[in-house]
Amino acid sequence: MFNGKKVLITAGPTYEPLDPVRFIGNHSTGKMGFALARCLAEQGAEVSLVSGPTALTLEHPQVQVISVMTADEMFAACNKIAPGADLWIFAAAVADYKPKDTAVNKIKKSDASFTIELVKNVDIAATLGKQKRPDQFAVGFALETDQELENARGKLLKKNLNMVVLNSLRDPGAGFKHDTNKITIVKPASVEEYSLKGKDEVALDILESINAEWACLQK
Ligand code: CTP
Ligand code: CA
């Protein structure tokens, strides 16, 4: 079903540097994005996987891995690939903020307290969403702790996505640090709940759901 399709996937965390040795980051491992890339490649898609720092590797003739560190670098890479891709999957845990300034030299400790000024990062999904053509399909992820469905629907609309894969941190076994995941897929006209499964099986569920929704749009 994805044979010959060009796919852009973002994965992993972003690291936002404070100085040459320190950064602001998060616990994302990149597993979900990498699992999706592998499944899509196995189904014949041509995948560009733009990944933040991760321990994972993926060698497949159908997958090009583009390694980035910051949200700005991730955005620059995605911006080049997105117009030529049929499907966009935003699985990265992009840092919402970055330090206003990055010190050239290592910051030395001095005072008892230390304040870092942060500024907002570019929203990759929302910015690309504005340029999405009707023939393109965009998938976002949302990790929520409360008002999950409402927040996921908000992201669907705000970022002009075709579907949002929702993870609730309230579900045991879901989220960053597990090999399993329990997802709910939120689409403009439906909500699909899935049981707790391994991330590779979750990837297959997501792809099947994308396929069904995309087929409806093309009718
Ligand atoms: N996303 C992105 N660029 C950002 C922030 C988020 O591309 N700077 C993408 C994520 O990859 C995900 C979706 O947007 O697919 C939702 O991310 P999330 O962090 O849940 O939403 P935010 O809009 O950042 O809102 P908040 O963190 O306040 O809930
Ligand atoms: Ca966020």
From TrEMBL:
GO molecular function: catalytic activity
Chain ranges of the DNA/pantothenate metabolism flavoprotein C-terminal domain: 3-211
Any one of the GO BP annotations: coenzyme A biosynthetic process
One protein family per Pfam: DFP
InterPro entries in the record: CoaB-like_sf (IPR035929), DNA/pantothenate-metab_flavo_C (IPR007085)
Protein name: Phosphopantothenoylcysteine decarboxylase
Originating species: Rufibacter immobilis
